Structures
1.
Amino acid sequence: MNTPIFSKLKDKIDNREAKVGVMGLGYVGLPLAVELAKAGYHVYGFEVDRSRVQQLHAADSYIVDVPTSELEQVIKSGKFEPTTNFSALLQVDVLSICVPSPLTKSDEPDLSYLLAATEQIKAYMHEGLLIILESTTYPGTTEELFEKELAALDYRVGKDYFLCYSPERIDPGNKQYTIRNIPKVIGGTTPACVKLGASFYQRIIEKIIEVSSPKVAEMSKLLENVFRTVNIAFINEMAMLCEEMGVDVWEAIEAAGSKPFGYMPFTPGPGIGGHCLPLDPLYLSWKAKSVNFTSKFIELAHEVNRSMPHYVCMKVCEVMSQMKGTIMGSRILLLGMAYKPDIDDVRESPSLDVYEQLREMGAHVFFHDPHVQSFLDKHGTVVFSIPLNLEELYSYDCVLVLTRHKVLPYQEIAKNARQIIDTRNAFKGVRQPHIYRLGTGSGSIEC
């Protein structure tokens, strides 16, 4: 293990003399790059979006988990250099790859970003480089996409360079669990690889979990999110069942949660969003098919969760039918466009689907989100958040709560709105006929 190349790189990492590259400066890459720069490393941030690079040089953060003050500190110190010039890879000793890994329209892995990253690395490859893939992907990607391509250039993994997989575990907007205190899983292609990877992350992360291979590390990330997706689908189905039975699912969840073992509470909603939950299980399902295995749990959970926006829209239709005879021409105000509370992230948000479906049904749809200024609809049109004017709430036929942002004045909304459909239990404990809560059958809808 102690070859001259290994020892030299280990010393650089331990002494914080290693130059680090972070490829992709989004919700994962930018917080990582700033944290590494704060720890004393010289960090190159590689990004194809020139406007993002310009914004970062102006110390203007576009990520909720990166305070502008921290960004300004590392930019002014010169420790963080955002760039679109990938030739700087020649200067890098450690490279963390944090590029997107979305799905195609046919729900198959879109590897275009990872393939582009591979080509950039091949163009500027050199001895003594530690490469760590963080993008979520299917088991086997690290070896198939990176080791195989670099072997064709006669680079020997574990000797000429080092290769690891370490899944990102960022939870945007989470103040309790951040990069520093979320345990970091890492799998290396060789023992030398994992030792270097662990040494690197130990400089900024409290606990490192070493596993036997990149495949195990890749699988661990998918297990985490498949577990959550399946359980969310289960509780969404239970919410629909509770409506039919006249049971308050929220009260049942709270009661079940009193058990100190054997149970973990999940809550229903209008669907799932974010970069991980709607996508990661399908990566595993796709890979399973390549070995002639069908994952019934994943596919069923995906079907249930994907149906929730339509289910919510049908509830809006029922309310409007009772009020006006039709949803056509109804004025609907959506509260919350982000996929989770108190952040500005609309990636894969179920609110987007609800918005489009209600418009297709003939409703006039507006939205207010204190964290999201605008989004692009399916036609590419910019839709802007409107101010929340409590005195004008009565002008809307229905207020639909899709994201439970803490700053929204729910008591005042309850007093001023004509009809409310609450998909997030924001009006917990409020029993009024004009408030319908998902999973209870309560309110003005006769289910």
Note: The two ends are 67 Å apart (CA to CA).
2.
Amino acid sequence: MPLSPGEFYAHAMRSADEEGRLPLSRMTGWEIFPFEQDGLRVVPLAPPELPEPARAGEDAANCRACARERAAIWSDEHWRLTSPGPGGAPLILMLESSAHYDLPGLPDDRARELGLLMARIAAAIESLPHIARAHVSRWGDGGAHLHVFFFARPAGFSQLRGTCLAIWDDLLPASPQEQNARDAAAVAEALAASYGGQPAPA
């Protein structure tokens, strides 16, 4: 029998201290964790909030992703790939469906395209000579419109590997705009060659 939200909370609180703080996670002991353990504290776990607050775009008529004018670096009839702008990682890209879908409601033909696109985008990112890996993330708690992030990990920086890359992206200074634009354009060209669709005009 699965735990109810209240039971899940009570179960977690049995491990908490008198302030309701859980112990530091195993992740804080990883050599790739970006913070020192000394002085690091876990925020208290809040009790469940049901029903959960609505995500942005639950109603397609009010979806910001559908209305957004951000220029795509690559697109086809069903998908668009955008570059949200320089972050701490050398390149961050976001793949969105053109139509208003979330991942669980994606039609089978779009789901097949998504799998192939993810593989081709990752390959294009990893073909950049200064990139070691393409990390792929889909969280979906902030917006109901399907969006998948691609984070490029720079070559030689194994400290940035794994799930902490998204945190490092927030900590590192923004990558140079010109290099970011060149990398995004190279990925768009490679994707058009391997998958189809159109890169944005230069």
Note: The first strand starts at residue 72 and ends at 75.
